[in-house]
């Protein structure tokens, strides 16, 4: 079975869902703190072609960073 390559907005939704379950709060608040999943050029980002620029308090950013690590391990690439 082939792996599904998500669109950036799908990964953003996945991150917000993960954070809601792990840290509490609402999915909408976490989606705002995660921000936009930005697709990067694969030629210069061979291990993963996406990033986020989180906002919020230091503990929010730490939780987002941990969620990104978890999601990126399973979904290193986003589709155009």
Provide tags for this entry.
mainly alpha, single chain, 80 residues
Verbal overview:
The model has no long low-confidence stretch (mean pLDDT 94). This protein has a two-stranded antiparallel ribbon. It has one domain (8-74). The protein is mostly helical. The chain has helices at 8-23, 27-34, 58-74, and strands spanning 38-39, 50-51. This is Transcriptional regulator.
- Count every beta strand, where a strand is a DSSP E run of 2 or more residues: 2
User: What share of the residues does DSSP label as strand, in percent?
Assistant: 5-15%
Strand order of the largest sheet: 1-2
Largest sheet: 2 strands, antiparallel
Apparent shape: globular
State the helix count: 3
**Domain count:** 1
Parts with pLDDT < 50 across at least 5 consecutive residues = none
Average pLDDT for all residues:
94
List the helices and strands and how they pair.
Elements: H1 8-23, H2 27-34, E1 38-39, E2 50-51, H3 58-74
Antiparallel strand pairs: 1-2
Helix pairs in contact: 1-2, 1-3
Brief summary:
The chain is mainly alpha-helical. Helix content is 51%, strand content 5%.
């Amino acid at each position: 079975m082939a792996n599904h390559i998500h669109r950036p907005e799908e990964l953003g939704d996945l991150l917000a869902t993960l954070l809601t379950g792990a840290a509490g709060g609402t999915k909408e608040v976490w989606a705002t703190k995660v921000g936009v999943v930005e697709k990067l050029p694969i030629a210069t980002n061979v291990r993963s072609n996406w990033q986020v620029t989180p906002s919020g308090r230091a503990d929010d950013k730490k939780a987002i960073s941990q969620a990104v690590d978890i999601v990126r391990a399973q979904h290193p690439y986003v589709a155009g």
